[in-house]
Amino acid sequence: MGKINIITIGREYASGGRTVGKMIAEKLGILFYNKEILHMAAANLNMSADDVRFADETAASSLLYSMSLMSNLSTSSALPLNDRIYIEEREVIKSLAHKGPCVIVGRCADSILKDIRDDVLNVFIYADTDARVKRAIDEYGEDPDEVYASLRKHDKKRSTYYNLNTGQKWGAKDNYDICLNSAKIGVDVCAEMIMKLATELK
Amino acid sequence: MGKINIITIGREYASGGRTVGKMIAEKLGILFYNKEILHMAAANLNMSADDVRFADETAASSLLYSMSLMSNLSTSSALPLNDRIYIEEREVIKSLAHKGPCVIVGRCADSILKDIRDDVLNVFIYADTDARVKRAIDEYGEDPDEVYASLRKHDKKRSTYYNLNTGQKWGAKDNYDICLNSAKIGVDVCAEMIMKLATELK
Questions:
Q1: At B3, phi and psi to the nearest 5?
Q2: Model pLDDT, residue A50
Q3: pLDDT at residue number B59
Q4: Torsion sign across C-alpha atoms B176, B163, B106, B191
Q5: Which among A126, A177, A196 has CB closest to B181?
Q6: How many CA atoms lie within 13 A of B189 on its CB side?
Q7: Pairing of strands B31-33, B102-105
Q8: Residues B137, B192: contact at Cβ < 8 Å?
Q9: Average per-residue pLDDT in chain B?
Q10: Confidence band (pLDDT; 50, 70, 90) for B198?
Q11: What is the rounded CA–CA span in Å between residue A12 and residue A130?
Q12: Do B103 and B17 form a contact (C-beta atoms < 8 A)?
């Protein structure tokens, strides 16, 4: 892919970011990681996917965790499970990036790889609320009466998770190389644009 | 250009946004408006470019102006000159958009055209501080000792101007369809990406 080997995709809930990532991985013939990262981290901790589902992109925001970032507490069982999983996911992400070209969705991958690799393209996908509501109802089968609350809840969860773990602001354009409004542009064209960038950047 | 006739470009100071816009206009063979909008607004107010240079993308933020947005005071000479010019620029931008395909840089054009046209692509160009510092020194000939202050001053001026006049937040991705980091992507590829989008969107 030229200079770029890794594409990270941050995304607002129901913006189609995961779909965009999957399209790119399929068309470029590279690996796609989303929930797989959680499952790999769980396996490394000798846990099942069921054990850790609750912790997916969810911050525990403990003081112990903040301390662990500055020390070597990372494997300490004194940490809340969310934090132990995040720390393990961080290692999984670094190791996957090292293995070869891939698309990584969410999980602070942009920030985790920021200072250690220069072959990463960081993308953020967002969309107007109306378009996200439609996607959540049509594609995720959400209850129309609860969909606005669902959008708020999921975005809040993702932003808290990202902000606490990275010290950066989730969705702030400065963390990304390109931000695309999928409601205006469409997921197909979003995928095309990102592939074009990833293959053309020198 | 398919569905898109107007491309608006917001930009951080020294991010290369103006250059990107100029490239697009030249390659697509459409008109390019930047400071021309100020000059046209001045002419409509029977003033010279010299008379109004101080007011370029500068907010007066007066109470009178806020009132004028809700009434028909727009031609009132009671308003500060900055505000009279903004109101006139708003009319110039609407009229230029009506005339035919073009690129418009800055001047809140995205917000001004938002509710009245659906053939607009709104772009924001930003870049890392280091890259902007380099551009300001190399291309604008700024003094290296004062360049950080210059960046802050210009961005502050643009954000105040945009935020007060539109009620939106300058540079917040939700106001734009695509945001591009010109330091990572390069101005040439930024221009290519935007042209591709503008010509392909249906």
A1: -75, -30
A2: 82
A3: 73
A4: negative
A5: A177
A6: 20
A7: parallel
A8: no
A9: 90
A10: very high
A11: 13
A12: no
Q: How far apart are CA A61 and CA A120, in angstroms?
A: 27
pLDDT tens across B84-133, in order? 888 999 999 999 999 999 999 999 999 999 999 999 999 999 999 999 99
**A145-152 contact pairs (CB < 8 A, 24+):** A150/A13, A151/A13, A151/A14
DSSP strand E in B84-127: where?
Answer: 102-105, 120-126
The pLDDT tens digits for A165-187 are 999 999 999 999 999 999 999 99
Sign, CA dihedral B107-B111-B117-B119, equals positive
Q: How many residues does chain B have?
A: 202
Q: In chain B, which residues have their Cβ closer than 8 Å to the Cβ of A177?
A: 180-181, 184-185
What is the DSSP track for A2-53? Answer: TT--EEEEEE-TTSSHHHHHHHHHHHHT-EEESHHHHHHHHHHTT--HHHHG
Residue B68 in this model has a pLDDT that exceeds 60: no
B162 touches B8 (CB < 8 A): no
- What is the rounded average pLDDT of the residues A74-96? 82
Contact A173 B181 (CB under 8 A): yes
Contact B189 A201 (CB under 8 A): yes
Model confidence at B61: pLDDT above 70: no
For the cut 90, the answer to whether the pLDDT of residue B201 exceeds it is no
* Nearest to B28, CA basis, from B53, B48, B7: B7
Residue B66 in tokens? 């806020």
Alpha-carbon distance of B38 to B105, in angstroms, equals: 11
A6: β partners: A102, A120
User: Residues A31-44, buried b or exposed e (16+ Cβ, 10 A)?
Assistant: ebbbeebbbbbbee
Q: What is the pLDDT of residue B101?
A: 96
Q: CB of A94 within 8 A of CB of A44?
A: no
Find the CB nearest B181 among A178, A180, A193: A178
* pLDDT reported for residue B80: 78
ipTM: 0.89
- Higher pLDDT: A143 or A49? It is A143
Distance CA A190, CA A195 (A): 9
How close A182 comes to chain B (CA, Å)? 8
Whole-structure pTM value: 0.90
Indicate yes or no: CB of A173 within 8 angstroms of CB of B126.
yes
From CA A63, how far away is CA B89, in angstroms rounded?
Answer: 52
